[in-house]
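If your schedule permits, I should be very grateful for your opinion on a structural question. Thank you for your consideration; the sequence and its tokens are set out here:

===
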Amino acid sequence: MNRAATFNTALTRRQFFRKSGTGLGVAAMASLLDEQGFAAGPDTGGLRLPHFVPRAKRAIYISLIGAPSQFETFDYKPGLQERFREDLKDYLGEQGERLTGMTSGQAAFPLAPSRYTFSQHGQSGTWISELLPWHGKMADDICVIKSMHTDAINHEPANQLICTGSMTNGKASMGAWLSYGLGSMNHDLPAFVVLHANHSWPQSNVQAISSRLWGAGTLPGKYAGVALRSVGDPVLFLENTPGVPPEMRRTMLDGLATLNRRSFESVGDPEIQTRIQQYEMAYRMQSSVPELADLSGESEHTHALYGEDSKERGTFANSAIMARRLLERGVRFVQIFHRGWDQHANLPRDLAHQCKDVDQGCYGLIQDLKQRGMLDDTLVIWGGEFGRTVYSQGALTETNYGRDHHPRCFSIWMAGGGIRGGQVYGETDEMSYNIVENPVHIRDLHATILHALGIDHERLTHRFQGLDNRLTGVLPAKVVKDLFA
């Protein structure tokens, strides 16, 4: 007896109910509802969403892996200058500070003021560091949130929390949830695309990241992000093998789909359907991706907006243009990862390079979206996974210092998608140590992003192992409605 064959052809109780629910029932429903009754169309995935009229149709998340310091970007604390090198050891003890293993053994915790100047910009008078001069030019387009906070103090769990809503492995990413809920607006491209931008300063402390940050978790695999590479072919194995014409590949895929459908009928594993859809998407991407990646048609005016780096593949500015092109073609969610923001030492040297990498590219992206009439319905989010400490890690001099991890408060910005630009939301104390006004947790940020896209975060769920999972989890989360115009 072939036990494997017997197992594969056996109809389990769960498969019986699944087949009953997706066979005659779906056929009956299809006879009552035409394709226009489904928000995302017949082959693009997605539920019958949005729940209400959305402010945004799509989103870009600029993820700065390593956590940029709020002291050197948006959280201006001029009063710290006269407290240079003040030992905060007793203060930290009073606060019950949770320290990482990198600074817990320090004999002293010298206060380190930012060595960079700040100035006010735009009609809003937003304080922005000299490290981000192009951000100053768009101060009235962005909303700076200075009161973000998180539960994690180390990079891996913090990045998982901000990307997936949980510090544990196996959860679906935000982009996967949006793909699952809203589907794609383009039959030939994925709903969720990931771009990895290079950092130009090799001395930066670069955090490793994994595909968990853009994975599908417990959702069907087809909702995971598709990463486009910055070197070589944008997507591996997309091109036909030499000697294999498109007609032969089409015949091969049709035969493979037939075999996979037979396997699905026998086993009932939904991931088999995901595999069929991925093969078909790859086939369609053979024509859509080369056109997407060809920036030769972009005008000199556009490149001038983003900066000369925009002509070099893999730079942040180039990735920002790619993100705009993806959105134009109907991609729902684009996430740009830029690493190297973990300045435990040599912060003044390394952070300046990191800011230069992204500063004009971000400005160009916002202005480009505005000029094309896309910013009103495109949500843009910029930020890292937590903040940095007011005290120096290691030695402190007048020209050099480092900062450890700080989860209690950090700064991000948002723009477009109904967000009211030219405002600063939330406030921290005199040392950017605790939040004193309008705290915004990671869960609140997720709920707000979903809200901008027309989704009630409590209603976007997926049942797995008997539990209804959702991006914001089971703890309280609120939509920050004051951010919207």
